[in-house]
Amino acid sequence: MRFYQSITADITIFTIKDGQLKVLLIKRTNEPFKNKWALPGGFLYQNETPEKAALRVLKAKAGIKNVYIEQLYTFGGFGRDPRGNIITVAYFALVPREKIKISRSDKIQTPTFYSLKKLPSLAFDHGRIIKYALKRLQAKLEYTNAIYALLPEYFTFNQLQKAYEITLGTKLDKRNFRKKFLMLKLIKPTKKMLRGTRQRPAQIYQFVSRKPAELKKFF
Amino acid sequence: MRFYQSITADITIFTIKDGQLKVLLIKRTNEPFKNKWALPGGFLYQNETPEKAALRVLKAKAGIKNVYIEQLYTFGGFGRDPRGNIITVAYFALVPREKIKISRSDKIQTPTFYSLKKLPSLAFDHGRIIKYALKRLQAKLEYTNAIYALLPEYFTFNQLQKAYEITLGTKLDKRNFRKKFLMLKLIKPTKKMLRGTRQRPAQIYQFVSRKPAELKKFF
DNA sequence: CCAAAAGTGTTGACTGTACACCCATGT
DNA sequence: ACATGGGTGTACAGTCAACACTTTTGG
Asked: In what order do the strands lie in the sheet with A155-156?
């Protein structure tokens, strides 16, 4: 016996903006949940893998590719979606805010970055998905180099530390942070300094590699 | 636009048997991959969630319920399955071998536990799935109490340590292991001793709780 | 009394954490 | 000159890893 299901791919797109961790939401223009905020996503095309669908949506809604993306969980079940038993493969993506280009054609859906602390009421079970994604993101920061995906190519140590503090929601000790992070050898100093601020210029760093990798230990 | 896909749920069922970590495989009786070994699994029924399908398969093939089960990953893509773009939600389950009851009606499929070190040639991309499941299992042992799911209700410290050694594939120091594990307060001694062996009798322990839980730290 | 696994502590190395001051610049 | 974030080192505590002998039983 063989049955057929509808599958959607939904993405939680994280970025750091205005010193806060934010998620991209769009306003639904169709039923169900018309006019409610939701994660970008959509049905898989015929012969499309969930991953490809997620990348397609990412490109369409945020104008970005070559981005850190990872499968989160597959949700299924009645009650999630009034249209019936729809199965959703959820992804999360990390994007430095410079890379995001909101498409003009999507104006109607008003894609907006919401702070995780002030989320609006959400369609489907997207609140749950976002919570789950945040938990995963925080876990990932502790044993992978994923933080690179939230930072621009060149950055100061302070920006790096802030990125951790914002996503983990904790304060970190400046000296200990430096020590630990330098030991990991993930970043290297460039020849540039950040000048023009009215303080001592800051060394500018870049990641040795901008590819996902696991660490032996961290935090 | 809305399309429909076929979805399967496949399970990697782990158990410890004869001092080895083993996986339950069945011999396929139909094309494709007829007569090849494969993970138990099957298509989702209409209106069935992936999780329910996994539990159904688990019950049918290994005669067990109330078991540690966890979603692993959702695989999709051409090339995986010659029938086309079939999407598979993979699960893994941990079962103490006492609980397993292979159903007689399944004799034709000859469900068999294979050691992870001596796997036969496998159907689909099931080799990859098993590898992935093993990695996840090993990771889980380091920050959860999942080991309980591989052990019977009553066990000795030695069995516990062996369970870790077998699944992680490493030798552990007896004294350090005891110290660390007792600190976690996951197990308590019962009033029974294992007698009848020709050595000093061993204290019999049981888990305080047989529910999944995360640890602050471990291994 | 012998074989076999059960049970038990100490030490040194390392890792993580707490903590405060001087530096270089722009205004 | 001063305000601002940039940059640096040390000491203590806690955790982890290495290591060997005595105990209790059954045969």
From this structure: A155-156, A202-207, A187-194
